[in-house]
Amino acid sequence: MSEHVHVRLSQGMGVSEDGLLVEHSRCRCGATWTKVYEVEDGEPE
């Protein structure tokens, strides 16, 4: 019997209306994920 392992394929990144960085991923089986990153305020490096 085989087990499915999700492989996250990047579908792109964007910025939400609230200024958060949002990453969209999917697996070939159809599963999807959204990860949100809070960006610190301050001077760019």
Mind explaining what this structure looks like?
The protein is an all-beta fold and 45 residues long. It has one domain (1-39). The protein is built from no helices and three strands. It has strands at residues 9-15, 21-26, 32-37. A three-stranded antiparallel β-sheet has the order 1-2-3, with no helix packed on it. A hairpin with a 5-residue loop joins strand 2 (21-26) and strand 3 (32-37).
Task: Describe the structure concisely for a colleague.
This protein is mainly beta and 45 residues long.
Nearest-integer average pLDDT: 88
What is the 3D shape? elongated
Characterize the main sheet.
Answer: 3 strands, antiparallel
Rounded radius of gyration (Å): 15 Å
Structural class: mainly beta
- The topology string of helices and strands comes to EEE
**Helical residues, percent:** under 10%
* Count of separate structural domains: 1
